[in-house]
Design goal:
single chain; 261 residues; alpha/beta; TIM Barrel; 7-stranded parallel sheet; two-stranded antiparallel ribbon; 9 helices; 9 strands
Length: 261
């Protein structure tokens, strides 16, 4: 299974290449408008007739720390001024989710980035009569039970070793290693393991627990079909240490160069 890789690496060519090779290619809809997603879906379908997935962000508006936002903007302002740009105004948006769901009738699989329950309900409304296999994130026992209750077909279980954003419903606490999650999250649904699958030992550990090996980020980001930027490619080739940071988004992703994904 291909990790969706929103924000640049995801391309129709990459998703199609994985599906044509016998895997499950995913096209990342995150950050895309409805029209761009529609164009990318059409392009992907020109390249493959195999099963295809689309990954969307399902976001909820929550209370924010206005003082922390103001302090962050204050810290950024000198750098923005030096570059001749103005800071934006923080606001919530739903990443055009309803509009995207309207065009997502042909993909075989649909997965959500943050809230499994929200996607399960939204997909049913957007595509009546269509059969979507819905993949939800479930990284703690209560999340897995909630996703199961909403009727998802399988759970994506992502270890703390994963690169990029974690799929956990909240961003509190320390990330749990994959092998611990696989031992604790089991509600009778197929589990798709990701994070900590960068080498043979990680994959064998997943297989021993009867799980399906899942999305792998940093192994596919350097591929020629990917839209990965050249600085990102150089960092992946160089290797090095990683850390969780909120420098890019409020939800702390693992950033840096690493072989874990």
């Amino acid at each position: 299974m291909l990790a969706p890789l929103a924000g640049g690496p995801s391309t129709p060519e990459l998703a199609a290449a994985v599906s044509n090779a016998g895997g499950l290619g995913f096209l990342a809809a995150g950050y895309l408008t409805r029209d761009v997603l529609s164009e990318q879906l059409a392009r992907t379908r020109e390249l493959t007739h195999e099963p295809l997935g689309v990954n969307v962000f399902v976001l909820e508006e929550v209370a924010v720390d206005e003082e922390a936002i103001a302090a962050y903007a204050h810290a950024l302002e000198p750098e923005a001024r030096a570059r001749g740009v103005r800071l934006g105004v923080p606001r919530f948006d739903d990443d055009w989710l309803p509009e995207k769901l309207e065009v997502m009738c042909k993909p075989t699989w649909t997965s959500s980035r943050r809230r499994s329950a929200g996607l399960a309900a939204a997909t049913g409304r957007a595509a009546p009569g269509k059969r979507h296999a819905r993949l939800g994130d479930g990284h703690l026992a209560h999340e897995a039970r909630a996703a199961q209750a909403e009727g998802v077909d399988a759970l994506i279980v992502q270890g703390g070793e994963a690169g990029g954003h974690r799929g956990a419903w909240s961003d509190d606490g320390e990330p749990t290693p994959l092998y611990e999650l696989l031992a604790s999250v089991d509600v009778g649904l197929p589990l798709i393991a990701t994070g900590g699958l960068a080498d043979r030992d990680g994959r064998q550990s997943s297989t021993r627990r009867r799980r399906t090996g899942g999305p792998n980020r940093n192994r596919v980001s350097p591929l020629p079909e990917a839209g990965t930027s050249e600085p990102h490619r150089r960092a992946l080739r160089a290797g090095g240490e990683t850390a969780f940071t909120r420098a890019f988004t409020p939800a702390a992703p693992r950033a840096g160069s690493s072989t874990a994904s």
